[in-house]
């Protein structure tokens, strides 16, 4: 397979010299764990004290990793990326809300995004997070098959109704819908709900997509189990495949509570699990659709190779590659330049409300070996290329 991800001219074609310098500065900061810790503490303090820092945040970290404060605010970013055939998944990235009014607001926002997306080729998917539609502890209790109080049952019925409303809307407007994955101890309830929606709305093709976090060693077995159900009951499976975002939290909780960790024993085991799941889905692509959410070059090459071996066209709508906005442009833009389907997750929302997401992203980047140094190396290479060209 030809190595395409080192082409920095294509990767950073949309970035001005100033934007490239900002990216270099940000990843230099993220590369230092002490700086991330200090920056997080200072930012949290400034926001809680209502200091006027939103302009500074917006001009630096926010604008690099987010599309804007609203859907309309994101339009210039989306249109610019789409000139290079890189699509967008509008991701309302307000986290940690726990009240009914906020869950209803998240539903309204997701329904609006489906309307926004239905006539735009540049927005091929909508997305929501399970805890955007209901309380974490409630998912946990339902997943553990614990008895609910009358008020909790009423509350859970509202969660189910939100799923139903948004999946119905996605189905009616023919907009595939990604449901994000979260912590393992609440995921069973979310998985069951997603599967119920798949069975109802994926009769003709995949509309509802769940997420498999493949740093969990049990996820391929889960996929095989629901594949049997899909074959027997006549529905399609849509899956977003990621490695996962909560590893340290998962391992810590397993240790504290004395149960076996759901996380693979090593990075290599996670990589093998991811690639094996991709391979399984490609082998069964007549019944499945894949959104391969990965910043891993090797996994991306392996999927490209599998597609070539199976005679699957790069632009086959059943297979999408996805990366986060502000990261791995060398993968996204080079894939798109070679005819593959690519969509960037484009976070948006009020600056203050999106900060928990941005802080989590910075902490994840610090803990993922090699990710930040790879970004820095590519940015440095492109800066040097431009100097020589000038």
Description of the structure:
By secondary structure, this protein is α/β, with parallel strands linked by helices. The protein has a single domain, classed as Alpha-Beta Barrel (TIM Barrel). Helix content is 58%, strand content 11%. Helix 13 (297-309) links the parallel strand 6 and strand 7. Helix 2 runs antiparallel to helix 16 (371-389). 43% of the residues are buried. The model has no long low-confidence stretch (mean pLDDT 93).
CATH architecture: Alpha-Beta Barrel
**N→C terminal distance:** 32 Å
The stretches of 5 or more residues where confidence is low (pLDDT under 50) are none
CATH class: Alpha Beta
Largest sheet: 8 strands, parallel
Q: Roughly how many Å is the radius of gyration?
A: 20 Å
The total count of strands amounts to 8
The coarse silhouette is globular
What is the number of independent domains?
1
Q: Work out the helix count.
A: 16
Strand content: 5-15%
Any key phrases for this structure?
11% strand, 390 residues, TIM Barrel, eight-stranded parallel beta sheet, alpha/beta
